[in-house]
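tool=predict chain=A
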Amino acid sequence: MLLNPSQKNALRLTLGLLEDELRRLRRLLQKGEGQRLLLHIVDDLTEEEKSLLNERIDRLISYVIYLKDSFDLTKGERVLRWIVKATSVYLSVQMEEVISDKLKGYGEITLEVKETLDPILNEMISILRQMESIV
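tool=predict ok
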């Protein structure tokens, strides 16, 4: 079966995203509850549900493998330098979206909040930009 290079690339990228998310889900299913600084993941699934979900994930992964082989999809390459650069840029833009002037769109911001929040966010943005420039 033949696909042109653009079609192959689109299929490879989409299947790659699917694989990434399925692997993330599998880790969550194995780990169960998890703690982060600003998030607590509550494991409300039964062992039976986890087993059924893992079976579906296995089937989906097998379809990804089948399609990869059927359409001769080559492995993409992600260069760590590019990942660091892109992630740093993306996160700095996200941090800029919560500067106090932007948060005003959600309601009133006091001077105290602005004076507490903005310097730290600006420092975080600066560090992210430094990370980008390192690579």
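Strands lie at 34-35, 40-41. The helical segments are 5-31, 47-70, 80-96, 100-103, 111-134.
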